[in-house]
Write a structure and sequence with these properties.
Chain B: Keywords: ATP-binding, Cell membrane, Ion transport, Iron, Iron transport, Membrane, Nucleotide-binding, Transport. The complex is a heterodimer of chains A (about 325) and B (about 260). Chain A is mainly α and about 325 residues long. Helix content of chain A is about 75%, strand content about 0%. Chain A has one domain (about 1-325): ABC transporter involved in vitamin B12 uptake, BtuC. The mean pLDDT of chain A is about 80. Chain B contains nine helices and 13 strands. The chains are: A mainly alpha (about 325), B alpha/beta (about 260). At the A-B interface, helix 11 and helix 12 of A face helix 3, strand 7 and helix 4 of B.
């Protein structure tokens, strides 16, 4: 599977609006290409985009896996906890709210970094609220429902905001909502990667606890698992991954939900020691493929990545529901 | 040798169990004094709603006692860390496991969690214990099966194997025979008796199979409205304890056969 990932990676780099011969791409990676504009395109556009796709795909897949195991619910995902809707609210407040809150801030606020900060802050705040509530509620299913409620509250606020904002602002918000992998500089990618790494490390540290949770919370407790502590680590890992991904790449749907299921079906296991690396690779591969499709090879247009992932994800969800009798996780 | 037999694994002192709300404590059962010896099979019986589950939940540290203390191997249950306790006490609950996509081997191996390293790798010793457990519970032939492929009786054996693999002095089972047919009820309880004898573990289970329990248990704990009594089945029969279990209008305990008869 790692080989497939490497192949997808190169295929992804070689596709784009400007067609560049494969030979030249390898040359530019080693660092000996004659055509300067080609080199620029590859090094500053396609490479970061491919790396972003890997981070986004694997990160969303893993956060979905963590949520599904923690909530013992095959339909859980980073969106269900309200993390992504929190990020959306943050961005909506910045983009849509700037007009309402006065023109002075508008120009300062609507920059790229403010969107990133707002999205991170939004997802973190929603997460914090969910966590405060979850410390009072024992039942994990209740937390799931509370997360959904937070999600609908934030989307309602977004609706109200969009009602009062101008068409231009609305357009900007909607474009963010399409999701994009291609707008990151190396510098941004580096910060993205650091936060991502913390999330992944926390997920790796939770492998044992996740396997125990497959038995249910009471059994997990009887096996000596510190339930509250591991629940906290898993939730923080998820929010770090899903929060930053949403901040940098927009709300990308379905990957978090669909990838863990696909991986379970392929590998026929629920053991997280296998699942975690498998979801990592599979998520990255699917995201690279989705991005290739979004490029519409040999055309000048780039489709919104969110539409492509939904086109892949929605049939999977339907397929899962139809097959529900045989769905185990 | 007698000293080993006298080893008390679980002891309660003046224990009261129930639910405490802010205003008042709702005592379900009080002044419970029991002492369970090493290697015994202990049956806990009582009518529905008498507080068997509450007692088991308290003994397993899921809920706090209202009063009194619980000692496992002479150490208060509250003084154990969660991992330490997991090495003393294992459970088989009535609830379904969350994921049935696990294979039998994987499920039994999860019983080794308190002993494994941070990522849960099985050591050579863990593998030896797991193999032994699979043999002892006669489920070796099922090892590669997924849990959703098993019958209720098989799954219960696997859950017992998992608790056994946890290698604790005390195993507590909450109604291990519900949903099983007559044969498998007897089979499971007989298996528990064999395991208690072979492994020297103390096994405590709650059950409604009073006649089976009388035949198989070393000690029984009988919960009735007014008191909690424990002793060997013979003693309890001669004391007439089983007559206090249920209201007497419908069924009565027959001392000769050791079972309940419907009044005609």
């Amino acid at each position: 599977m790692s080989i497939v990932l490497v192949i997808c990676f190169f295929v992804n780099i070689s596709l784009g609006s400007v067609s560049i011969p494969t030979k030249e791409i390898f040359k530019s990676l080693i660092g000996g290409i004659d055509n300067e504009s080609w080199e620029y395109i590859i090094q500053n556009y396609r490479l970061p985009k491919a790396f972003t796709a890997i981070l986004v795909g694997s990160g969303l897949g893993i956060s979905g896996l963590l949520m599904q195991t923690l909530f013992r619910n095959p339909l859980a995902g980073p969106f269900v906890l309200g993390i992504s809707s929190g990020a959306s609210l943050g961005v909506a407040l910045v983009i849509l709210g700037s007009g309402i809150f006065g023109g002075v801030f508008a120009s300062v606020l609507v920059s790229k970094w403010s969107v990133v900060v707002a999205a991170s802050l939004g997802s973190f705040l929603v997460l914090l609220a969910v966590m405060i509530v979850s410390s009072k509620v024992r039942d994990t299913m209740a937390i799931l429902i509370i997360g959904l409620m937070f999600g609908s509250i934030t989307s309602a606020v977004v609706s109200v905001l969009s009602y009062f904002s101008s068409a231009e602002e609305l357009q900007q918000y909607i474009f963010w909502g399409f999701g994009s992998l291609g707008n990151l500089s190396w510098h941004e990618l580096f910060i993205f990667f650091l936060i991502y790494l913390v999330g992944i490390l926390m997920a790796i540290a939770s492998i044992k606890g996740l396997n125990t949770l497959l038995l249910g919370e009471n059994y997990a407790k009887s096996l000596g698992l510190k339930l509250k502590q591991s629940r906290l680590i898993i939730i923080i890992a998820t929010s770090l991954l899903a929060g930053t991904i949403t901040a940098f790449a927009g709300p990308i749907a379905f990957i978090g939900l669909a990838i863990p299921h696909m991986t379970r079906q392929i590998f026929h296991t629920s053991n997280h020691k296998t699942l975690l690396p498998a979801v990592f690779l599979f998520g990255a591969i699917v995201m690279l493929i989705c991005d290739c499709i979004a490029q519409l090879p040999t055309s000048d247009y780039t489709l919104p990545i969110n539409a492509i992932t939904s086109l892949v994800g929605a049939p999977v969800v339907i397929w899962l529901l139809v097959r529900k009798r045989k769905m185990f996780f | 040798m007698t000293k080993v037999e006298q080893h008390i694994v679980l002891e309660t002192k003046n224990l009261s169990v129930g639910y405490a709300s802010k205003k008042e404590a709702n005592i379900v059962a009080g002044s419970i004094n029991i002492a369970l010896q090493k290697g015994q099979l202990v049956g806990l019986v009582g009518a529905n709603g008498i507080g068997k589950s509450t007692l088991l939940r308290t003994l397993t540290n899921v809920q706090k006692p209202l009063q009194g203390e619980i000692y496992i191997n002479s150490k208060s249950i509250l003084d154990y860390t969660s991992v330490e306790l997991a090495k003393q006490l294992s459970l088989v609950l009535t609830e379904q496991i969350a994921s049935k996509n696990l294979s039998v081997f994987e499920l039994v191996a999860l019983g080794r969690q308190p002993y494994t390293n941070w990522v849960g790798n099985l050591s050579q010793e863990d593998l030896v214990v797991i193999e032994k457990t699979l043999q002892q519970t006669n489920i070796d032939f099922l090892r590669e099966k997924k849990c959703f492929e098993l019958s209720d009786g098989q799954l219960q054996k696997v859950m017992i194997a998992r608790a056994l693999a946890q290698d604790t002095d005390l195993i507590i089972l909450d109604e291990p025979t519900t949903h099983l047919d007559m044969y498998h009820k007897a089979y499971i309880l007989k298996l528990l008796q064999k395991l208690a004898k072979e492994t020297g573990k103390t096994i405590l289970f709650s059950s409604h199979e009073i006649d089976l329990a009388i035949q198989l248990c070393d000690t029984m704990i009988v919960m009735s409205k007014n008191e909690v009594v424990s002793g060997t089945p013979c003693k309890l029969i001669s004391k007439g304890t089983f007559n206090t279990l249920f209201p007497e209008d419908l069924i009565a305990f027959d001392e000769k056969t050791g079972s309940f008869r419907v009044r005609k």
